[in-house]
Amino acid sequence: MSVFTPVTRRSLEPFLARYHVGSLVNFHGISEGVENTNYFVDTSDGQFVLTLFERLNYDQLPYFLGLMDHLHQRGVPTPAPRRARDGALSQPLLGKPAALVDRIPGIGVADASARQCAAVGEALARLHTDGQGFDGHRPPDRSSDWWQATAEALRPQLETDECELLDDELAFQAGVDRSHLPSGVIHADLFRDNALFAGEQLSGLIDWYYACNDRFIYDLAVAVNDWCVDEHWAPRADHWTQLLAAYAAVRPFTDAERVVWSAELRASALRFWLSRLYDRCFPRGGDLTLIKDPTPQRRRLERWRAGEALPLP
Question: What is the pTM of this model?
Answer without folding.
Answer: 0.92
